[in-house]
Amino acid sequence: MIEEEKYPPKYVDWVRLQRLAQIISGYEVMVVPGLFQTEAYTRALYVSRVPAYTEEEIDRHVQARLERQVVLTRTPPPRLGFVVEEAALEREFGGTAVLKEQLLHLLECMRTLNHLTVQVMPNKRHTHAGLQGPMQLMSTEDGRNLVFVESQAGSTLISKPEQVNGLFDLFGMLRAQALTPWESAELIAKKAGQL
To answer: pTM of the full predicted structure?
Structure first.
């Protein structure tokens, strides 16, 4: 019941599965992935939401997102792989100081979590496999592969193997088209240094 109050109904199952997932991956186009967001960055996202949340709703959503981050340090940890659009690393939600703190936090996660790979999709890629939008992918302990997609119209948990397999293939192409993890870390550090 408590979980159902913290998360949107369609997201509750995803959160439960994520706690035990062996592999968690994602492609983000607008924001830094939620698992790596700082409190200030997360709050800025919820404050800017339309239609607006109340202060109480903002607090509840921020707390729920931060609580999900426990998955990063659990034993054994999941393997994590994310591709993030460069533009998402430039959007100053909450202002310059909030973005700088967020970029430095993401770099720290990349340096200290040896089970994490972050790759940046540079703005200069005129085309790539992810033009249909963001997605989150997961492989569970029992061998199931799942995908969660969100849009303005709502969210969907995809479990049909033929659909999931195609999206996992697409994510593999995205990783091949993005900068390497080392190039990505250099780019993120450069962006943080410019703020």
So the answer is: 0.92
